[in-house]
Amino acid sequence: MSKKENILNAGTALFAQKGFRDTSTSDIANLTNVADGTIFYHFKTKEALLLAILEKVKIDILNEFKQYTGNKQCDNGIDMVENAIAFYLYLSGKMENQFLLLHRHFPYELAEKNEECREYLEAIYNCLVDIFETAILKGQKDGSIPAEKITRKTALIIFSMVDGVVRFKTYNMYDASALYGELINSCRCILTCKI
Predict the structure, then answer these.
(1) Is residue 77 a contact partner of residue 142, using CB atoms and an 8 Å limit?
(2) Domain definitions of the chain by residue range
């Protein structure tokens, strides 16, 4: 692994666990056994490092879902939504630091004044919602989901529910796996009921 990749990984872990403000570049340098100057060689500022991390998070999440969907055949849209939910919950455990980073407040504070940060966050969430929307569209084509559903809004609602459960897990507030059955049933109800 290159020094740059080590810095990205260490920055992700420290920003996720300690927060952006409470993590110094010296903390990252110590964790990666490089000089502070090496961090600034690769990333001009701490904010630039955060932006690079957000870009990497987006790419990693997309790659994980592409690999997953490439290996998974679904009979219909409902099955595809349920599989996406299960995989999202799995991925939140596999990419724990990345999800914790996304659940922290500081990226959104930065996004208020930094357009590039806002674009990265929007891209991350759009790619996640797109996964659910694609499944809903499939379901509308195969008849497992009523055609009158507004796909993007329904996908946003389902994503928000699933991500809310992940937040419980992230902050050790509740055993998210205990909610799995109810989450699937609630999503199935949202998708199949007539409006």
Answers:
(1) yes
(2) 1-44, 51-192
pTM for the structure as a whole? 0.87
Question: In the structure encoding, which two tokens stand for residue 163, read together?
Answer: 């991500």
User: Which one-letter DSSP state was computed for residue 171?
Assistant: T
Q: Does position 195 have pLDDT exceeding 70, yes or no?
A: no
CATH of domain 1-44: 1.10.10.60
CA dihedral angle for residue 34, residue 36, residue 41, residue 46, rounded to 10 degrees: 120
Q: Does domain 51-192 have CATH number 1.10.357.10?
A: yes
> 157-162 contacts: CB < 8 A, separation 24 or more?
157/190, 158/81, 158/85, 158/132, 158/187, 158/190, 158/191, 159/125, 159/128, 159/129, 159/132, 161/186, 161/187, 162/85, 162/88, 162/89, 162/187
pLDDT in tens, 95-130: 999 999 999 999 999 999 999 999 999 999 998 899
Contact 51, 59 (CB under 8 A): no
Q: How many angstroms separate the CA atoms of 178 and 93, rounded?
A: 15
Mean pLDDT of the residues in the chain:
91
pLDDT, residue 17, reads 93
Asked if residue 180 lies in contact with residue 89, where contact means CB atoms within 8 angstroms, the answer is: yes
50 and 11 in contact (C-beta within 8 Å)? yes
Beta carbons within 10 angstroms of residue 64's beta carbon: 16
Q: What percent of the chain has pLDDT over 70?
A: 99
